[in-house]
Specification:
The chain is of the alpha/beta class. The protein has three domains: 144 residues, Methylthiotransferase, N-terminal domain (Rossmann fold, 3-Layer(aba) Sandwich), CATH 3.40.50; 233 residues, pyruvate-formate lyase- activating enzyme (Alpha-Beta Horseshoe), CATH 3.80.30.20; 57 residues, OB fold (Dihydrolipoamide Acetyltransferase, E2P). It is built from 14 helices and 21 strands. The chain has a six-stranded parallel beta sheet, with helices on both faces. Strands 17-18-19-21-20 form a five-stranded mixed beta barrel. Helix 8 packs parallel to helix 9 and helix 12 runs parallel beside helix 14. Iron/sulfur cluster binds next to helix 1 and helix 6.
């Protein structure tokens, strides 16, 4: 999807590359045959995919039915990402394709949602004349009204960023889900101001969602047969919610514990953690509950302290190493993955080597690697020159990817012969005779079907074959 990232899928955490831009309502029945139909595509991070489920819920409430066939829809929505330039280019290309449908079926409305809508605001309507609606991440409740206005020929924009909106009581329409794992958004926005990042501008100030609404959503998922929840936020470790009645303050460790207690049968994952905020209390909470997965996505961004300072990450390489050591000390079999940016402004070859070395030292099971893409309006765009030539950025990126592949292979080798508790997610891509599922460490394992086990079941799988990317095994009980 993103050319700047030739081998690794994009963004915060395991969204497979194939999922980027995936039509949301794949293989799902239309819920309201009489109503108008909408079609939605999502790009970017898991948060965006989760937001599309909220959008779907809001539209379904107002009588729209989802469809996976773009040509038969009355409303085409694209939930966009601004994180790198390539992501935006891809969206513009899709909008050209939507134009054709608008010409063939006049009256079809096109709406741009999410981060690009927020970043470009009314400029979008000027640049992309055939777009009918521009709706930012905090304005989705306004969609039915904006659609009605657009039907009357009036183009609509709402890019108001809220300090309160968490869509707390909206139950997402989980039509794209595998029925086993679901996302729960626990907070919105970001107050971190990393110098490379556009998110604080597109998603606004950080705010945490009501604890009880999160627990209610997890319980609802459990009642609907789900076995895994992933708690989502740009920076989950700074989750903080005050109970208005008791004045008790709930932090992320408290929240994790409360969600883990919903059912020991339901796995809990979370993303993304920030190295400056992840506390020992959180790590101990993960260790204390079998159903909180031993996996932390802890983006380092760079292995060099000077670059980290320029990135405004507010920690240095030693701090990061100390956090990693604490994680391995408290949870010895914990898996850690990372995001790394290659070729940030002024990065030297030696500083780049420190990023490569960090992959090895920290034993990341996976890294999401990107080369630096300057984003308009960010601190880095204003303060530093984007001075590393593209060729050099790409070469550095490849060196990180190569190191990660080596480290992943070494780690996977250690899995040979080990037996893991795996939650079955569905058929493997290659064969209907095989299932795929993940262990607590978030590693995907493929294995032959046996007995009457089905998606949503836990099975013990012994690993007997590995590559740098996959584990294969067999059910042993
Ligand atoms: N250029 C390249 N990568 C970026 N990321 C965020 N902003 C940029 C940018 N301007 C990466 C970071 C972040 C991940 C979601 O995307 O590594 O953790
Ligand atoms: Fe998600 Fe917005 Fe970031 Fe893209 S820019 S990854 S949509 S938060």
């Amino acid at each position: 999807m993103y050319d700047n990232n030739p081998t690794i899928p994009d963004l915060n955490k395991p969204l497979e590359e194939s999922k980027q831009g995936e039509v949301f309502f794949k293989d799902q029945p239309v819920v309201n045959e009489d109503g108008k139909k909408f079609y939605i595509e999502s790009y970017g991070c898991q948060m965006n995919f989760s937001d599309s489920e909220i959008v779907a819920s809001i539209l379904a409430e107002s009588g729209f039915a989802p469809t996976r066939i773009m040509e038969e829809s009355d409303l085409i929505l694209i939930n966009t990402c601004s994180i790198r330039e390539k992501a935006e280019q891809r969206v513009r290309q899709r909008l050209r394709e939507f134009d054709k449908i608008k010409k063939e079926k006049p009256g079809t409305l096109v709406g741009v949602l999410g981060c690009m809508a927020e970043r470009l605001k009314t400029k979008f309507l000027e640049e992309e004349k055939l777009v009918d609606m521009v709706v930012g991440p905090d304005a989705y409740r306004d969609l039915p009204k904006l659609v009605a206005e657009a039907e009357g020929g009036q183009k609509g924009v709402n890019v108001f960023l809220s300090r309160e909106e968490t869509y707390a009581e909206i139950s997402p329409l989980r039509l794209s889900s595998n029925g086993v794992s679901g996302f729960i958004s626990i907070m919105r926005g970001c107050d971190n101001m990393c110098s490379f990042c556009v998110v604080p501008y597109t998603r606004g100030r950080e705010r945490s969602r009501n604890l009880f609404s999160i627990i209610a959503e997890a319980t609802e998922l459990l009642e609907n047969g789900f076995k895994e929840v992933t708690l989502l936020g740009q920076n989950v470790d700074s989750y903080k919610w005050e109970n208005p009645e008791t004045k008790e303050v709930v932090n992320f460790a408290n929240l994790l514990e409360a969600v883990a207690k919903v059912s020991p049968e339901m796995r809990v994952r979370f993303s993304t953690s920030h190295p400056k905020d992840i506390t020992d209390e959180v790590i101990h909470t993960i260790a204390a509950y079998e159903n909180i997965c031993n996996y932390i996505h802890l983006p380092v961004q760079s292995g060099n302290s000077r670059v980290l300072k320029l990135m405004n990450r507010t920690y240095d390489a030693d701090w990061y190493r100390e956090r990693v050591e604490s994680i391995y000390r408290i949870i010895p079999d914990c898996a850690i993955s990372s995001d790394i940016i290659a070729g940030f402004c002024t990065e030297t070859e030696e500083e780049h080597r420190e990023s490569v070395e960090m992959v090895k030292w920290a034993k990341f099971t996976y890294s999401y690697t990107f080369y630096y893409s300057e984003r308009p309006g960010t601190l880095a765009a204003r303060k530093y020159e984007d001075d590393i030539p593209l060729k050099v950025k790409k070469r550095r990126l490849q060196e990180i990817v190569d190191m990660q592949r080596e480290v992943s292979y070494e780690q996977n080798q250690k899995d040979l012969g080990k037996t893991y508790k795996v939650l079955i997610e569905g058929n493997s891509k290659k064969s209907k005779d095989q299932f795929k599922g993940r262990n607590s460490q978030n590693k995907m394992i493929v294995f032959s079907k046996k007995g009457d086990c089905k998606p949503g079941d836990y099975v013990m799988v012994k690993v007997n074959e590995i590559t740098s990317a996959t584990l294969k095994g067999e059910i042993v009980s």
